[in-house]
Amino acid sequence: MTSEVLVEKKKLEKPPLEIHTxxxxxxxxxxxxxxxxxxxxxxxxxxxxxxxxxxxxxxLAAPQVAVLKQLIVIxxxxxxxxxxxxxxxxxxxxRFTRDxxxxxxxxxxxxxxxxxxxxxxxxxxxxxxxxxxxQTLMAxxxxxxxxxxxxxxxxxxxxxDRVENRLALTQELNKYGFSPQAVxxxx
Length: 187
Ligand code: ZN
Description:
Layout: H1 39-54, E1 59-61, E2 71-74, E3 86-96, E4 100-105, E5 115-120, E6 123-128, E7 134-139, H2 141-153, H3 166-175
Antiparallel strand pairs: 1-2, 2-3, 3-6, 4-5, 6-7
The structure holds zinc ion.
């Protein structure tokens, strides 16, 4: 079945949605579960994908576009037209693998800032797709990383909150005009 949410992977001159950046309060608010997965949600998914591709991202969570709903879109191969994006609605992580790994992350809400973050290597995640069908996915590598990063957005957590090297964090944020005060370290 061809999904209604598939969009052309290209940069639009005027993306449909605005991406909020570090310091904007909406990024710190928790997202709500989506009760009804209907065509309105699929319209939002389409616009989020267009906005993500336009910004050269591999993932986008609804709170980043000021929509406080538990919805994320991911495409780890944005240059490959044959690779469909993954749409995760109301995702929950069922299992983490025991091994942790350190990977450099970036975020469309904190442009140009890239820093190392330690997270579990693999996950099992349960979610609903854009038609409300329950799905589970075992992910490792970039996909696992992207899902964990985007799911943090649903609880108001940003990747900079998880950076252990505080000196590098402060330097990077200052360099690109963000306030280190906007970071809320996770315990
Ligand atoms: Zn992000």
